[in-house]
Amino acid sequence: MPLVAKIPGLLRTETGLIGAAIDGGEKSFYRITELYFEDQGALQAGFGSDEGKATAADYQKIAPRRSRMFVVPVDD
What we know:
This protein has helices at residues 40-48, 50-62; strands spanning 10-17, 31-37. The protein is α+β, with helices and mostly antiparallel strands and 76 residues long. It has a domain at 4-19 and 26-62. It is globular and about 40 Å long. It starts with 9 loop residues before the first strand and ends in a 14-residue tail after the last helix. The mean pLDDT is 90.
């Protein structure tokens, strides 16, 4: 998270551990971290920066195998 906090244009972050699968099935994910940007352009600029590239590279090193990153536009 110290690297994430340095990404230009980042508005806020939220993170938490997955508590349970509602359907009672196996928890296929351990943790969720949400990064908020003003818009798609700000997200692309943030991850295109040196700080964003360093964050993405670190994610590749520390994330468990089969972890994934998603981009989800928030409905207003």
